[in-house]
Amino acid sequence: DDDDSATDDDDAVDDDDSSSDDDDAVDDDDSSSDDDDSANASLSWVELTTGPSSVTTRESVTVTVTAHYSDSSSVVITDLIDVGFDTDVASGNPDPQWLGFDLSSVTAGAFELSATVGSEESSSVLISFAAAPVEAGDFVANELLADGTAGDANGDGFTDAGEDAFVEFVNVSDIELSLDGVRIYDNDQDLTVAARHTFGFDDVSLPGEALVVFGGGNPAAAPANAQFFVADNANDPGIPLLLALNPTGDAVRMRLADDTLVAQVEFGSVGVGSPDANIDESINLDPDLVGSTWDAHSTVSTGGELFSPGLRTDLTTF
Predict the structure, then answer these.
(1) Of 279, 152, 305, 261, whose CA–CA distance to 215 is shortest?
(2) Three-class secondary structure of residue 271 per DSSP
(3) How do beta strands 283-286 and 293-296 pair?
(4) CA 88 to CA 96: how far, in whole Å?
(5) How confident is the model at residue 283 (pLDDT cuts 50, 70, 90)?
(6) pLDDT per residue over 93-147, tens digit each?
(7) Burial 94-110 (b: 16+ CB within 10 A, else e)
(8) Fewer beta carbons within 10 angstroms: which end of the chain, N or C?
(9) What is the DSSP letter of 169?
C-alpha cells in the first residue's frame, strides 16, 4: 500500500495519466480527425471576364463570373441568382439586356460592369456597343411627297416644289443602326449617277425611328422619334438638283455603300402597278409600315391631312 507501490493509484495502469486517458491521441480535442480542425474554405475574390468586350448592337458579349476561394479552388458561377451585377454608364445611351450570361444592347454606348458574389465584388470591366451597320430590310419606305407644291411640308415657312418634296424611311429593326455611307438615289438604274443624299459617319438611327430627307430648305424641328435631313444636292455649288423627283414617274431607293438595296418606293410610270404620286399630296403605305399598297395621304389619314413627315398618318409618333 505504499504510495510508490505497483498497485498504488499513482502508478496504476488505470491512472488518469494512462494512455487511455482523455488526453489520449485518439480522443484528444487536438486529434487530426477532430471537427474543430476542419475549417471550410472562404470566398476570397471574384473575377469578371468578358468575351469580347466590344461588339455591335447586332451582337452580344458573354460574361463569365468566377468565385475564388481561400483553398485555391475556384468555381464558375452558372446561375444568375447567385450573382449580382452593377452597371455605370460611361458614354452614350446603352440599354443592357440579359439573356442568361449573354449581354446585349439595342442602343450604342459604353458602360462599366462589375459582379458581386456574396459580399465580394469584382473589378469592373468596360463593355461597349457600337451602332450596327445597316442591312437590307432594316428600313421601310413609308411616305413620299414627289411635288412640294402641295404645301410647306418642311415647315420652314415657304412652299417650294423641290425643297418641300420628301421621302420618309422608318427603321423597322429593333436596334440602333449606323447610317454611315447609306445613300438615297432617285431612279438609279444607272448607279454611276451621284446619290441625292449620303448619310455621314455621325448619323445613326434608333429602333423605330423615322428618317425624312427633304429636297431642301430649312426644316423645322422634327417630331419625337424622327430625324429631318436636307438632301446633299440642295447645297451643290453647281446645279442644286435637290431630290430631283419626277412626279409623273420615278423611284427613290435607299442603298448601302456597296449598292445593296435596303428599301425603295417606285411610283408613276417607273413600274407596272406603281402608285400615282403626281397629286397634290403625299402617298403613304396603308397602313403605316406594314401596308402592301400606297394610297393618297388624305384617304388614309384620320383628318384628311395632305402629308405627315416624321409622323404616322394619324399624326402620332412612330
Answers:
(1) 152
(2) coil
(3) antiparallel
(4) 11
(5) very high
(6) 999 999 999 999 999 999 999 999 999 999 999 999 999 999 999 999 999 999 9
(7) bbbeeeebebbbbbbbb
(8) N
(9) E
Q: Compute the average pLDDT of residues 3-22.
A: 51
158-179 pLDDT per residue, tens: 999 999 999 999 999 999 999 9
Q: Which three cell numbers stand for residue 277?
A: 404620286
Contact 41, 69 (CB under 8 A): yes
For residue 236, give the nearest of 256, 214, 216 by alpha carbon: 216
Identify the three-state secondary structure at position 71.
coil
Residue 253 contacts residue 231 (beta carbons within 8 Å): no
Q: What is the pLDDT of the chain when averaged over all its residues?
A: 89
* pLDDT > 80? residue 31: no
Residue 52 grid cell: 469580347
Beta bridge partners of 197: 184
Tally: H helices and E strands in the chain = 1, 23
Amino acid at 46: V
CB 255 within 8 A of CB 116: no
